[in-house]
């Protein structure tokens, strides 16, 4: 069932075997979006349990999972909302990506249409999600190289243009799955998250992000930010 | 009839320009720092709540749903209902040609049976519904989404059963409380079925199957069979689904191949036939037991019913506030002795139609199915002490959030909570399984306020965060967490879950209102250092086990042992009640203390190896007693306001209704009702008068009063009819000093009654009984329907008195 794990983590990070005693984990809310059957749940399963199920059942509703990682001296706790890809769930996606610090938008490298769907998710996130959200575009099913229909260059070009993280990966073989999350972790303004959390003393509902807006009132000016959609991703 | 093309041809799906939507969304600009009010506004807009957007959202939903169904359409088949596939409408025609089928007879019991599938491209989709039912878009959406788990689908492998409840839309409401335009689909003129004790809600009982199937794209079979009914019989319908309907229909669905050669694609002939047969069987059942037909308001009625060749003996409560107890041992039907006479004649009446499989149950011994069982023991097996604060919260009609891992366990616990306070009827709203996609999410899902008197059962961890402001939260676990609906793996070693005994509740009753347990996305779990802590289920289990580790395990062991008995002790598995209340988080300060003597007795029973039925009944009796004691001062006061007694009624002093039954006056007088605190079987910490005062303000009090008055009316009316039927009219008329006017009055009364009910006894030939009849809403609300025998007597009395009247007066009649 499970492919041999190729758990090659990027330097500096690894799933935390034991937390550094003093460090409080930084919670990072991450949402997975993408067309049905591109392998969203499989990517999460690989990341969280390092396993792969050949026949993963279609996700109904949404699944919630967590995974802790260590990045240098910090512990990051990913809170992952794995959503169902079917059209009828799309209307509730805002509930899940609200307040998310990161999003993984997945497509299937063997299905051109799934990239188009991914682009529309990216667009939606850029317009409506937390303006500082880190978006990673992930082309899954790299193990199916022979059936590829989406050229790497095409997706890469789109990602650079939009300021997204980009990689191709395989939940089946495990290739580059860790890297997706590692790269996201590196881009998250961890210091700020920690600081804002201790400042407000509140739970994650109010704690995250918005470093640009910062300041005393902590509110984002609705009028001001609506136009600057395309610059999301490269915050700080 | 059914061939008539319906005027409700669906309008062309409206395509919403996605840019409009996104612009709208962009203008909201979701941000981190929305205040609660802003967030509510945001939710409203996202969910299409505001006037201007609701039509867009509805149209959007319509446009999502239409393509699947319209793509199936064949041109020459008229559309009965926009949501139906043509297959369904042709099936409808077939059965209407069957003289044995009456839609109204079916709908006394249930509305329709549906198959909901998880469409790989769209998501949940209604695949088949029979008989056709006009459903609004919000209803349709709720049914589709609530028929599947809301989150973490991996934990739902196998078959599972749960239930949900939604507000009936206009057309369902019309069916049951109808107007003369009644049945808009023109299928059956006999619309307006009245159902006693029903509310404005529809109950859905779901059998969900998720299993690998290599012949289906993506390798999984994911479908639900859903039975819609106006009745809150959370024990009865699930048993039918579990024992016969669910597996039979699912097996049929999973064995047939569609046109494209894919399995599980569409609802094909085998499954359709089964669903149709089910419906025909249901039309042959006797009328659903109800207080208007029941001789006694305080007794179960037993019905023997047949479904797809299986016989069931079922016990129904006379009203929704009546608590049912388990039969502690199998009984023979004759021993019960209370089988409704109408049902017996009903069975005879249909015997010629289904003589093949109808075997009498009277000689065999079986365990009757309870319509509203109270599985108190399992539910509280690890947290016995929590029953007291929960009883108080429920009596007061407080809003409670019930979060669980699976739809099955949250719906089981929500029902169990309602059972806990009977005979006080819960007067608020309750949703055994509520999802993020529910069309009423926008009204119930506010992030700032808590809806009053509402019990919500949820599984999506998203709610834990959204509803963290709810005052009372119950966390539900499972005795048997890994085997969801898979009775083949009864737990043996899990008895260690059990907690030690009576005082366990204190540990779990967390007054600091901290959300407890796992599966909470937001609560850092500091002691949980495992990198593999991902699955909420795993961590739940761990914390659950650790919180009870080392304590005496008797209670839990008995629970799981008995659950096992239930599984293995019969030919086929029965529903395993394995949901357990793990914790309660509240700031509420209990008034009552636990009854230590009772808890000790209970522990003794457990140690002695008492059966699950006995344990459930013991707990139940204890809380019925508690509730009765609580109600005693109110009952005494209420009865004190009534003038006279129905028992003393005679022909000379007839009164169809109690006098001075003034609810308003009662409500006004009430604050002074309990002058002294009644003797509870538990001690109170604080003044009970405050507790009563709170109760008077609650929805439960209103509901109780309403029930009480309705029962009183029924009782009076029953005596009234009895007196009319059973008095010796001849003797009465000939009594000295009898005024003519009195005789005429009696005659008019008899005439009234005969006229009122004659529609139900059409030809009054002996082989026709009320079982063929649909009662009108008006007569149901008057609270009483005479039996065949009583109706005959009324007619006879009418003739007798008519003969005794002088010629001149007879002419006037």
Automatic annotation (TrEMBL), chain A:
Superkingdom, taxonomy of origin: Eukaryota
Annotated keywords: Nucleotide-binding
InterPro entries assigned: P-loop_NTPase (IPR027417), Small_GTP-bd (IPR005225), Small_GTPase (IPR001806)
Biased composition (Gly residues): 204-217
One Pfam family linked to the record: Ras
Record keyword Nucleotide-binding present: yes
Region (Disordered): 1-21, 199-236
One Gene Ontology MF term: GTP binding
SMART domains: RAB (SM00175), RAN (SM00176), RAS (SM00173), RHO (SM00174)
Protein known as: Uncharacterized protein
Organism whose genome encodes this protein: Chytriomyces confervae
Lineage: Eukaryota, Fungi, Fungi incertae sedis, Chytridiomycota, Chytridiomycota incertae sedis
From TrEMBL, chain B:
Residue ranges constituting the UDENN domain according to the UniProt record: 111-715
Protein's name according to its UniProt entry: UDENN domain-containing protein
Taxon lineage: Eukaryota, Fungi, Fungi incertae sedis, Chytridiomycota, Chytridiomycota incertae sedis
Family stated for the protein in its record: Belongs to the DENND6 family.
Chain segments carrying region Disordered: 481-541
GO molecular function annotations of the record: guanyl-nucleotide exchange factor activity
A GO term from the CC aspect: recycling endosome
PROSITE patterns on file: DENN (PS50211)
Bias type Polar residues, positions: 525-541
Species this chain originates from: Chytriomyces confervae
């Amino acid at each position: 069932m499970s492919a041999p794990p190729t758990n090659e983590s990027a330097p500096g990070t690894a799933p935390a075997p034991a937390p550094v005693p003093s460090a409080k984990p930084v919670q990072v809310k991450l949402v997975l979006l993408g067309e049905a059957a591109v392998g969203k749940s499989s990517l999460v399963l690989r990341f969280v349990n390092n396993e792969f199920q050949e026949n993963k059942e279609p996700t109904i509703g949404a699944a919630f999972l967590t995974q802790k990682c260590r990045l240098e001296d910090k512990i990051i706790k990913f809170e992952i909302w794995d959503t169902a890809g079917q059209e009828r769930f799309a209307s509730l996606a805002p509930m899940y990506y609200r307040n998310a610090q990161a999003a993984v938008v997945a497509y299937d490298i063997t299905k051109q249409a799934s990239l188009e769907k991914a682009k529309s998710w990216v667009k939606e996130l850029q317009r409506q999600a937390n303006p500082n959200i880190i978006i990673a575009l992930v082309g899954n099913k790299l193990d199916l190289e022979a059936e590829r229909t989406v050229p790497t260059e095409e997706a890469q070009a789109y990602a650079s243009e939009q300021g997204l993280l980009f990689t191709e990966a395989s939940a089946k073989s495990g290739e580059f799955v860790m890297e997706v999350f590692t790269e996201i972790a590196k881009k998250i303004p961890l210091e700020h998250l920690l600081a804002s959390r201790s400042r407000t003393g509140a739970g994650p509902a109010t704690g995250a992000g918005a470093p640009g807006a910062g300041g005393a009132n902590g509110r984002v000016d609705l009028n001001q930010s609506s136009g600057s959609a395309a610059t999301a991703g490269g915050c700080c | 009839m059914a061939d008539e093309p319906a005027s409700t041809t669906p309008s062309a799906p409206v395509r919403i320009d996605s840019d409009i939507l996104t612009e709208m969304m962009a203008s909201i600009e979701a941000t981190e720092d929305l205040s609660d009010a802003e967030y509510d506004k945001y939710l409203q807009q996202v969910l299409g709540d505001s006037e201007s957007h609701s039509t867009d959202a509805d149209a959007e939903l319509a446009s999502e749903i239409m393509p699947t169904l319209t793509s199936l359409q064949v041109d020459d088949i008229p559309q009965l209902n926009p949501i139906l596939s043509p297959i369904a409408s042709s099936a409808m025609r077939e059965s209407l040609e069957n003289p044995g089928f009456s839609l109204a007879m079916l709908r006394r019991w249930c509305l329709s049976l549906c198959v909901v599938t998880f469409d790989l491209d769209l998501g949940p989709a209604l695949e088949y519904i029979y008989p056709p039912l006009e459903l609004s878009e919000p209803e349709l959406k709720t049914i589709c989404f609530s028929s599947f788990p809301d989150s973490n689908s991996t934990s739902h492998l196998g078959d599972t059963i749960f239930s949900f409840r939604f507000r009936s839309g206009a057309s369902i409401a019309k069916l049951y409380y109808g107007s003369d335009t009644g049945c808009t689909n023109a299928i059956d003129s006999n619309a307006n079925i009245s159902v006693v004790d029903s509310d404005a809600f529809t109950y859905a009982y779901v059998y969900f199957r998720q299993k690998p199937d290599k012949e289906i794209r993506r390798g999984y079979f994911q479908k639900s069979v859903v039975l819609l009914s106006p009745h809150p019989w959370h024990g009865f319908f699930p048993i039918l689904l579990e024992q016969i309907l669910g597996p039979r229909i699912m097996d049929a669905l999973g064995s047939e191949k569609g046109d494209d050669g894919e399995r599980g694609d569409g609802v094909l002939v085998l499954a359709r036939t089964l669903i149709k047969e089910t419906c025909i069987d249901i039309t042959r059942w006797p009328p659903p037991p109800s207080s208007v037909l029941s001789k006694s308001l305080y007794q179960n009625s037993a019905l023997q019913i047949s479904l797809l060749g299986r016989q069931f003996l079922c016990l129904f409560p006379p009203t929704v506030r009546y608590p049912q107890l388990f039969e502690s041992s199998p009984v023979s039907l004759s021993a019960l002795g209370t089988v409704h006479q109408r049902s017996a004649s009903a069975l005879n009446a249909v015997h010629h139609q289904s003589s093949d499989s109808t075997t009498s149950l009277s000689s065999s011994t079986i365990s009757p199915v309870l319509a509203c069982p109270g599985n108190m023991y399992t539910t509280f097996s690890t947290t016995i002490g929590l029953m007291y604060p929960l009883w108080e919260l429920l009596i007061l009609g407080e809003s409670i959030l019930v979060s669980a891992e699976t739809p099955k366990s949250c719906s089981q616990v929500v029902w169990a909570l309602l059972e806990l306070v009977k005979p006080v009827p819960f007067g608020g709203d309750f949703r055994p399984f509520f999802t993020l996609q529910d069309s009423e999410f926008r009204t119930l899902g506010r992030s700032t306020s808590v809806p009053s008197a509402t019990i919500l059962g949820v599984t999506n961890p998203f709610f834990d965060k959204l509803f963290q402001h709810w005052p009372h939260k119950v966390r539900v676990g499972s005795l048997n967490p890994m085997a969801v609906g898979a009775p083949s793996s009864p737990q043996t070693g899990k008895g260690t879950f059990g907690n030690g005994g009576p005082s366990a509740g204190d540990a779990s009753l967390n007054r600091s209102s901290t959300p407890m347990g796992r599966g909470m996305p937001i609560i850092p779990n500091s002691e949980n250092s495992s990198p593999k802590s991902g699955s909420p289920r795993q961590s739940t289990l761990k914390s659950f086990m650790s919180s009870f580790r080392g304590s005496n395990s008797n209670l839990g062991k008995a629970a799981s042992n008995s659950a096992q008995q239930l599984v293995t002790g019969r030919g086929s598995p029965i529903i395993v009640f394995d949901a357990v209340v793990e914790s309660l988080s509240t700031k509420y300060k209990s008034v009552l203390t636990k009854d230590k003597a009772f808890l000790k007795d209970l522990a003794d029973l457990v140690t002695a190896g008492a059966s699950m039925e006995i344990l459930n009944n013991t707990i139940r009796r204890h809380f019925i007693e508690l509730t009765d004691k609580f109600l005693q001062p109110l009952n005494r006061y209420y009865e004190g306001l009534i003038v006279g007694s129905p028992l003393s009624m005679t022909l000379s002093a007839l009164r169809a209704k109690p006098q001075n039954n003034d609810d308003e006056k009662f409500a006004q007088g009430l604050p002074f009702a309990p002058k002294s605190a009644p003797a509870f079987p538990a001690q109170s910490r604080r003044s009970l008068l405050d507790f009563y005062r709170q109760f008077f303000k609650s929805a439960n009090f209103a509901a109780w009063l309403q029930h009480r008055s309705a029962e009183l009316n029924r009782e009076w009316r029953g005596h009234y009819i009895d007196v009319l039927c059973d008095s010796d009219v001849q003797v009465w008329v000939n009594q000295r000093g009898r005024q003519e006017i009195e005789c005429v009055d009696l005659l008019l009364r008899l005439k009234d009654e005969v006229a009122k009910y004659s529609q139900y006894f059409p030809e009054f030939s002996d082989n026709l009984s009320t079982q063929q009849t649909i009662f009108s809403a008006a007569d149901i609300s008057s609270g009483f329907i005479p039996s065949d025998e009583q109706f005959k007597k009324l007619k006879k009395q009418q003739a007798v008195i008519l003969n005794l009247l002088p010629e001149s007066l007879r002419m006037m009649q």
